[in-house]
Amino acid sequence: DLPTILKVCQEVGIAAVECRTTHKHGVEPKLTAGERQDVKKRFADSGVVFWGCGSTCEFHAADPAIVRKNIETCKTFVDLVADLGGRGVKVRPNGLPKGVPIEKTLEQIGKELIPCGKTAADAGVEIWVEVHGRGTAHPPHMKTIMEHCGHPKVGLTWNSNAADIKNGSVAEYF
What we know:
By secondary structure, the protein is of the alpha/beta class. About 45% of the residues lie in helices and about 15% in strands.
C-alpha cells in the first residue's frame, strides 16, 4: 500500500517512485480530486518524489476501438500524473499482431502516440514509451515507432533487455 511504499523508500533512501497501475497502492485515475490531493500530500510529507505512473496503455492492437480506448485511458493517466505533480506516464507497445505487416503496426503505434503526447504537453508532463513486447522491443523497431510519432513530449524508457546486447554491449542499440 502507499504508506508502506513511502515508509520503505524513506528507510532505504529511494528518492522517487513510479506507481504502476493495478498495484495495491491504489494510485489510479479513478481517484477523486480529494483523494488526489491526499496522495500528493502523502508524497510531499514523505520527501519521496512522485515520479509518475506506469500504465498498461498499448497501441498495437489490430482493432481500432481497442487502440482508441487505450488512448483515452492514457489521457486519464496524464491527468492523474499532472494532478499529483509527477513527470510522466509510461505506456508500452506489447507485440506485433499476427497477420499485420510489421511496418504497418510500427507506424500505427507511433501515430497513435501523438494524441497522447499532445495531451501530455498540455498537462506539462511526458509520455514514456517502454521498450517492451514481443517484436516491438527490438530497438530498431522502437526507433521506427518514435520516427512515426515525432512528438517532443513522447520519449523512450529503456528496459535493458538481454536481447539488446550485441557483442557484449548495448552501445549499438543505445
